[in-house]
From TrEMBL:
It comes from Paucilactobacillus vaccinostercus DSM 20634. Its EC number is 1.1.1.23. Zn(2+) binds at Q255, H258, D357, H416. NAD(+) binds at Y126, Q187, N210. It holds the Pfam family Histidinol_dh. Substrate binds at S233, Q255, H258, H324, D357, E411, H416. HAMAP family: HisD. The active site is at E323, H324. The keyword Metal-binding applies. This is Histidinol dehydrogenase.
Amino acid sequence: MMKIITDTLENQLQQVSQRTAGLTDPEIEQRVRAIIENVQKNGDDAVRDYEKQFDQVDLTQFRLDDATIDAAYENLDPDLKEALEVAKANITSFHKKEIEYGFVDAEKPGVIRGQKVIPLATVGLYVPGGTAAYPSSVLMNAVPAKLAGVNRLVMVTPPQKDGINPAVLAAAKIAGVDDVFQLGGAQAIAALAYGTQSVPRVDKILGPGNIYVATAKKMVFGQVAIDMIAGPSEIGIIADESAKPKQIAADLLSQAEHDKRARPILVTNSEQLAQAVSAEVEAQLQTLPREEIARTAVEEQGFIAVLPTIDDLFTLMNAIAPEHLEVQLPNPTDYLSQIKNAGSVFLGQYASEPLGDYVAGPNHILPTSGTARFSSPVGVYDFVKRTQFIQYTGAALAQEAQYVTKLARVEGLEGHARAIEAREEN
C-alpha cells in the first residue's frame, strides 16, 4: 500500500527540502575515475577489455556496419515501424518550433552587433541497453539534434550477446543517426569524451543511463558538455475528488515500473481519493509484470500527501519539482500559471504520462531529482551554441571610448584603456 501523509504543509515542505539527489557515492566515483583514466590512456584496448568484463561480449569492432542497421529496419514489425514513424513526425513538428535564429542589431549609427546560432559539430547519444530497449530515447535525442543542424550524430549502446535490439537500430536509422557503436557504461562515456582510435571525440553527450553512466557524465563535464545528470524517474499527480482512482493508480505505476528508486507521488485534497488510489495501486500491482520493481518504488519512494487546499497542492508539488506532472483537476489549463517547477506537464485525464514518453511530441528526456527548479527538457536549443559579434566605425568608437577607458581604469586594467586610446589618432 502507498503511505498516506496528512502532515501540515510546512512539515511536508521541510521534508522535501531535505531530499538529496543521491546520484552517486565515493566508491562508484573511484571506480568510474579509474575507467575514464584507463580509456584516456589506452583507448580502444581499454574499452574492449571493459566490454568483455562488464557485458561479457568479445568485440572485434565497435562500429556497426550500415547493412546490419538497414536489415534491422527492413525486418522490423510493420506496426512497430509505423509507431516509430508517427512518433518521429510528432517529435519533429513540436521541436521545429524551438529552432533559434541569429540576429543583427544596427540601430545605433556606426555600430553593428549580432549573434550567430551555430550547431554543435559532433554529438554523442547514449542509449541504455540490458533488460529494456528504448528506441523512443533515440528519437527524443536525435530528432532535435538533426533539426538543430548537428553534422554527426554518434550513438552508443551496450553490446548484447544476441545483437542490439532491432527496434533501437531501426529508430537510429529513422532519426538519422550517423554512427552506431556497440559500447556501454562508463567506458562508452569516456570514449565519447576523449576519443579513441575508433570512436570520435564529441562536443556533447546526451541520454540517460545507470549510476555508472551518470557518474561518468558528471566527471567528463568540462571536457565535453552534457545534458544533465539523470536520476530515477518521477511522476507527480495533483488531483481532487473528481479524479478516477483507477487512472491515477495506473499512471503512478507507469513510472514506478521503471526503477526501484522511481518516485510515484500523488497530492490531493481528498482523503477519500487517497484511500481509493492506495487500494487501487495494490490491486494493479498484483498483475503487473514488473511487480517487484514497481512495488519497491511504491513502498520505499512513493507517497500520497493530503492537504486542505488546491493552492497547498501546487505549493508542495512546486517544491518537489517532479520530472512529470499530471494535473487531474477540472479545467486543468486554468492552473498552468501555478506550475513553476516541472519537467513536463500533462493536463486532464486523457493526457496520461506515457503519451509524452512515446508519441505526443514534447521531449521525454527531462530534469529529475528536483532539478526542474533550474533545468529544462532536452530540445533543439541543447544542440547549438551562440557566438556574438560587434563592429564599430571610428566615429562610433569616439562616442564611447571615454566610457571604456573610465571603466577599465577603475578596474585597474590600464592595458585595456590603452588599447582604446591607441585608436584615437585615427
